[in-house]
Amino acid sequence: MLTLENATHEVDELVRQVLAHLNPLGSVKIAGDPTPCDDPTDGGEPGRVTAVAQYEVYIAGDLLPHVDTLHTWLTGNGFQILKDARPNYLWAERLADGFRMAVQTNDLGAFFVTATSPCVWP
Fold first, then answer.
1. 122 lies in a domain?
2. Residues of the chain with pLDDT under 70
3. pLDDT tens-place string over residues 35-44
């Protein structure tokens, strides 16, 4: 059974792997506390949480090539793309275990990478 500790480790590891492919100028973790799993899709009981790791990533220049790099990485690592609105948004789920990742950018040059777990008990 997946525990919150294991899920937290996995979301951090997923972001670490993505950052290794981006070669950013830097990054800062801006969210990491578990969030309520208030809309579980597996029919499970309420009271569970989702592990979260969200980073702001500092990248020089055009963001689209970096979003494209992540698209390639995600699809090559067992993720199915759920929403592709490049260059502003990319959302995917790893089919094997339900972990999800999102990439979001904006016109100000901000670049965010988020990984979330399936619902787990706290």
1. no
2. 39-42
3. 998 765 667 7
Tokens 């590891």 appear where? 13
Measured CA to CA, the distance from residue 52 to residue 31 in angstroms comes to 7
CA 53 – CA 43 distance, rounded (Å): 24
Residue entry with tokens 């089919």: 95
What is the reported pLDDT for 40?
59
Q: What is the pTM of this model?
A: 0.92
CA neighbor of 101 nearest in space, from 22, 23, 11: 11
Say how many domains are in the chain.
Answer: 1
Taking only the tens place, the pLDDT of each residue in 6-21 is 999 999 999 999 999 8
Whole domain around residue 19: which residue ranges? Answer: 4-116
Which DSSP string do the residues of 3-64 spell out, in sequence order?
-HHHHHHHHHHHHHHHHHHH--SEEEEEE-S-EE--S-SS-PPTT-EE-EEEEEEE--S-SH
Nearest-10 crossing angle of helices 64-76, 4-22: 130
Phi, psi of 38 (to 5 degrees): -90, 0
Whether 33 contacts 51, CB under 8 Å: no
